[in-house]
Amino acid sequence: MLFIIDEILENMVREDKRYFSPHYIISVAANQGENLSLKQVTEYLLSLVPAKLRVYYEVECPNGDSDFAIDSPHQKLDEFKICHICNTEYMPSLDRVWVSFDFTPEYRAYIKKKRVVPKVRRDLLLI
Length: 127
Ligand SMILES: [Zn+2]
Prior knowledge:
The protein is of the alpha+beta class. The protein has one domain (3-125). The protein has 5 helices and 5 strands; from the N terminus they run αααβββββαα. The strands form 2 sheets. Strands 2-1-5 form a 3-stranded antiparallel β-sheet. The protein has a two-stranded antiparallel sheet with strand order 3-4. α2 crosses α3 (38-47). The radius of gyration is 19 Å and the shape is elongated. It binds zinc ion (ZN). Zinc ion binds next to loops.
């Protein structure tokens, strides 16, 4: 059932979508009648790094701004920061890290070259 994610990702490349969160995938899947959990989707997307996807971790300030990026969700955060958007001083927390993804240029190029198989109407097949 996670195969639906591959399909969603391919469509997103065709629509030139960039930088997306696992929540986006969950909502697209939900529109297609699949209920996926955040953990499932995040783990699956992480398994596509680095071949198909790049991953970004962004630390959020107490006011919900995406303040700065870190390389790993295990990075030590022990310095006070001043948010570049709202100027609030705060202690960054790993509980407030947003995960986002983007497609690698290689994957984008591959999908764009791939031929889209036209959908055939089912009633035409039954003739
Ligand atoms: Zn802020």
